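re: that complex we talked abt at group meeting.

here r the seqs, copy pasted straight from the sheet so there may be weird spacing, ignore it
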Amino acid sequence: MEERGSPDGDLARSLEQGPEGPETPIQVVLRVRPMSAAELRRGQQSVLHCSGTRTLQVSPPGGGPEVAFRFGAVLDAACTQEDVFRACGVRRLGELALRGFSCTVFTFGQTGSGKTYTLTGPPPQGEGVPVPPSLAGIMQRTFAWLLDRVQHLGAPVTLRASYLEIYNEQVRDLLSLGSPRPLPVRWNKTQGFYVEQLRVVEFRSLEALMELLQMGLSRRRSSAHTLNQASSRSHALLTLYISHQTAQQMPPVDPGAPCVGGKLCFVDLAGSEKVAATGSRGELMLEANSINRSLLALGHCISLLLDPQRKQSHIPFRDSKLTKLLADSLGGRGVTLMVACVSPSAQCLPETLSTLRYASRAQRVTTRPQAPKSPVAKQPQRLETEMLQLQEENRRLQFQLDQMDCKASGLSGARVAWAQRNLYGMLQEFMLENERLRKEKSQLQNSQDLARNEQRILAQQVHALERRLLSASYRHQQGPGLTPPCPCLMAPAPPCHALPPVYSCPCCHICPLCRVPLAHWACLPRERHLPQVLDPEASGGRPPSARPPPWAPPCSPGSAKCPRERSHSDWTQTRVLAEMLMEEEVVPSAPPMPVRPPKTSPGLRGGAGVPNLAQRLEALRDQIGSSLRRGRSQPPCSEGARSPGQVLSPR
Ligand SMILES: Nc1ncnc2c1ncn2[C@@H]1O[C@H](COP(=O)(O)OP(=O)(O)OP(=O)(O)O)[C@@H](O)[C@H]1O
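got the structure back, here u go
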């Protein structure tokens, strides 16, 4: 007899050894259902015979060679639901799920072979008629065992459940609040393939879980065909999520994501079927084709997973929704149990052989079970990550704060610098302006000094000329023995006004030399005033002694002591005096400058006085020169023959 399939060792020992290791094969349990009433009625023979607990013998009708298949466990038709539950070692899977492993139990076989019966028991015989507990399938028994196990753990465990079906290559939520609608299958690095927006329901009791199960079963698509009156037309996946929650544990990162922990998934595959055998038409045929395609894709992946070389390469799990959702169970980190279901009828032998070969290959597929890190185990890493994030945030905030400080200080510094520049610039400008004004002031002072010096020099020259002129005139008219009217006339002498007064002089007002007002000085007595012989008409009817001398400075207008303004006759006298000097070298004087108001500033007065003095000096020279020239060229003439304006004109 040919024996295929099963690896060495029984299922129980394999499960007891635990899944953890480099490679763990998919555990396969073969269950042979009893002959159905219909098969018995048709007189069909059984072609399957169990040999021991792990070997199945196939005896083809007609005397063909027997074929033996070895699996982890082989359960004949006499086995009860409880036997199956125990033989499959589902409790061991439950324990692994509690430790955080991802475990999968899936049934495989042709339509009507007892897959649904194995997992969930027989369908209710009528509305309101409960299924006997003895007929409860693996799922209900596992639920009961799990809830009881959780209650005795002594630590809080969160249990949640989801239930979906893949119908015509569409994922539908059997626990959705509304009518089931297609849901997308996504993938990410953390979760692998997952169904988006799948409702995951937390439950705390077996009754609640049973209600969820019944809800899903009632919504699952099923139809009747020749081989099965309640044939499932979809693949159904019920998943239990088991997570430990302690006070020290952190909540899940993504609230919408399933809790990190173990899970236990029950997959009731739709049965493969030959359309010709089931007589499916229309929608049934479409459903059958979809079911067969997905099962073919699953078989293909399993075949590829058997090849060690190709296993490391690409496995086409994306070929169907079913292979996507079973990818982790078949080729990943899960612990997987396959319950292959077959019919003992000879009529189903081809499909049975196909299932047996299929199961035989599957049990050679290995996985690398790896328990996901529990939240407790992830806590240090999570805390470390959070610490790094906080450090990064702290560094970033510190950087921003430093930047703000820099900006603020830069702004303040700019303002200070701006103010300093402005103040410094203003100070510099003030200093420059001050320096410029100082220089200008110094220049003005120098100019004023020069002007004053020039004025003083010119005044001295004028003074000297006038004294010489008066002295000569006096000597020429009165003789050398006469005392001069004023000591300063005899030049050079100290300032006349510094001399002590000698006589009381009612007609004198200002020193003719320095032009300082004098109360009394060396004026001659009235009878000695000169020149009394000159131009009696110019005196204005007054006696000559009452008139001021021609060298006297002009009086201030309106002064009580100045009876008249300087008249032209005064300058005529000067002309006459100049004519007396025809034989001598004399320089006639120009008309004296008027006395300026005392309020005039010295600078301006000095600056304006210089050109006046120069004019006076120049005029005096011209006048004297002209007189000398005329005197040399013409003989003296009588007084009445001359006109004052013909000789000298006042400037
Ligand atoms: N071990 C068993 N003992 C008694 N009856 C069984 C057993 N297995 C299956 N049956 C019965 O066989 C019929 C078909 O079983 P089931 O619906 O579970 O097959 P299936 O593989 O799920 O079929 P499908 O793929 O079409 O859904 C049901 O009436 C079921 O009660």
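couple things i noticed - The two ends are 167 Å apart (CA to CA). Residues 459-647 form one domain.
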